[in-house]
Amino acid sequence: MSELSPKQTAILEFLAEFISDKDYPPSIRDIQIGCSISSTSVVDYNLRRLEEKGLIRRDREVSRGIEVLGHRKRSRTVEVPVLGSIAAGQPIPVPTSDRWASDVEETVTVTGDMVRGQADIFALRVKGTSMIDDLIADGDIVFLEPANTAADGDKVAVWIKDRGEVTLKRFYHEGDRIRLQPANSTMEPIYTTPDNVEIQGKFIASIRPSE
Q1: What is the pLDDT of residue 65?
Q2: What pLDDT band is residue 183 in, cutting at 50, 70 and 90?
Q3: Were both Cys, which of 29, 34, 95, 141 would link to 99 (CB 3.0–4.6 Å)?
């Protein structure tokens, strides 16, 4: 470590701590913010120096493709498409499921463990705070597996047909009606009928973007 500059030492320590904590590598922007570096180009320069010294390995074809050598094997990462936004508040219009495949805005890199090793996972960016008691906040990204059924209490993305809107709520069957329950004590549930809802996906996990 004596041959490293203070900045390179800080970056290497940040990489090891970030990967240990989150089980996936940081982005260049994460490193810039976490190490208080002036620009991403400075981060990139120092990552190249660390790579030349054999301390890290980078896969430039993969987002967040950084491995700290000698730290531990990097978890397999997968790119998950972010297909738009979903309401965690009052429902808002979003693309229907048959259009989602052509409406990809971005992708996000996560570990295979986070999405349970499944290949057909998709992600949506949350708008609103109705799921805040389930630790899902405005701006978070939620990962869902395609599904058309749910058990009581499951967190699901639900298409409300007569509104042309999708929302993220807990799902309950109650006799001849459906209750879509927010996880926020200040908000009221949505009641509707079984023939007016279509489950689009079942919640797996969520992350809070760092930028």
Answers
A1: 83
A2: very high
A3: 95
136: CB partners within 8 A, 6+ apart: 88, 126, 142, 168, 183, 206
Domains of the chain (ranges plus CATH)? 6-68 (1.10.10.10), 77-207 (2.10.109.10)
pLDDT band, very low/low/confident/very high, at 118 (cuts 50, 70, 90)? low
| pTM for the structure as a whole | 0.58
Q: How many degrees, rounded to 5, is the angle at CA 75 between CA 70 and CA 76? A: 130
Mean pLDDT within 171-177? 94
Catalytic residues: 130, 169
**Residue 209 amino acid letter:** P
Residue type, 3: E
Q: What is the mean pLDDT of the chain?
A: 82
